[in-house]
Amino acid sequence: MAHECGASREAFEKATQIMCTQVSIPVSDRYNSLYDEKDLHHALMALSISNGYAESGMRRLSVEAGARTPSGSWVRDRVGDVDEKEMTTMLDRALDSTLDRVKSFRVFTSPVVAAIDTHDLPRYDANLDGGFLRRGKRDRGTTKHEVYATLQCVEEGRRAQIACEQFGFFDEREEVVGRLLTKARLDEVEMSLLLLDRGFFSSSVINALERSGQAFLMPCTLFSGVKRAVMEYSEGKRKRVSRHEMGPEESRASFTLVILPKTGAAEDEKDPLKKFIPFATNMPRKRIMWNVRRLPKDYRMRWGIESGYSGVEQLRARTTSRNHSLRLLYLYYALILYNAWLLANLTLARRFARVLTKPIIPLQMVKAVLQRVIVESFGGGG
Question: Is residue 121 domain-resident?
């Protein structure tokens, strides 16, 4: 237990140092001011690990510390004063810095399997907030959502958050994918395979991935051409692995279509569309044919990003504020603390000369240790 706590404290100190260095949020510089920038970041971390709202979260922290702490309005106002574009730039740098710390453990010396996913946060605004929101399927009583696309390694032992992009109303999917890939390359993270869900299945996204030279794998949406291909395969008129084209003439996309049995389908299922699942990929044919039945296993690694999404949600503060800087900070803080969790595990694994294949320190333990350290920083712990 002592080792786990020690590694968690080290990760906390690194995260605090990164945030104080990379995300400069002005506070009062008067000699008699109560709180400095480090206090602000400690308060923000406390809100993150408690999934709290600013006012109630700060009141709770004050009770636990048995001392005066910043008010929720003070925290919100300090963050809200920062320009949105400046905040985005600083947060990108902070996320890059945590990734650099992870890379220092040499876990990215070989190419990784990564995935792109979207985080849809429901919003109940009367409008689209100047393009900050997107429309989508009705969820929790609204069709408007604040959407972020994240790129994450999905391999155990190096499951880090690599990059994040805010997905505005006017952003096209291929543009967001392109920006994420650019960030990964700037961070020198090489991806052997990129996994995407069928929400990204379009000719424009496939063409963007081809232009970037990025190997990808994603399930196909059952458009008419794909449906026809699955029916032809079931009738013996099409091979399991074949070329397929789709999209308008000016942006036609060509890719390899792989049709495989759907896991969990009933043995007596007659409908080919329920019996088989089509995948789109640009992997070399030799790689596919070497072990074609491995593809579903490769794609199931994508569920690693679902685990990552769950972890991020356990580290995200809540707010009803429409201030973009505050909302961006809350999400990025969750991504950065998620990477700090990975750092704590890598630190402990190195200490015992182990290869990290799954988390040694549970996320809840890291949260408990961080809460204790934050309480102590405000004068509690006696």
Answer: yes
Could you give the angle at which helices 173-186 and 203-212 cross, rounded to 10 degrees?
Answer: 20
The per-residue pLDDT for range 166-178, each reduced to its tens digit, is: 999 999 999 999 9
The pTM of the full predicted model, rounded to 2 decimals, is: 0.91
Radius of gyration for the chain, computed over Cα atoms and rounded to the nearest angstrom: 23
Structural domains of the chain, count: 1
pLDDT digits (tens, 9 = 90+) for 167-224: 999 999 999 999 999 999 999 999 999 999 888 999 999 999 999 999 999 999 999 9
> Per-residue pLDDT tens for 231-248?
999 999 999 999 999 999
**How confident is the model over 8-24, as a mean pLDDT?**
93
Specify the amino acid at residue 12: F
Query: 192 in a domain, yes or no?
Result: yes
The 3-class SS string of 38-60 reads: HHHHHHHHHHHHHCCCHHHHHHH
Domain of residue 145 covers 2-196+302-377
The three-state (H, E, C) secondary structure of 87-110, written as one string: HHHHHHHHHHHHHHHHHCCCCCCC
pLDDT in tens, 332-371: 999 999 999 999 999 999 988 888 888 899 999 999 999 9
Instruction: Report the alpha-carbon angle 191-196-197, nearest 5.
Output: 165
Are 246 and 253 in contact, with CB atoms under 8 Å apart? yes
Q: Which of 121, 78, 79 is CA-nearest to residue 312? A: 121
Does any domain span residue 58?
yes
In a domain, 355, yes or no: yes
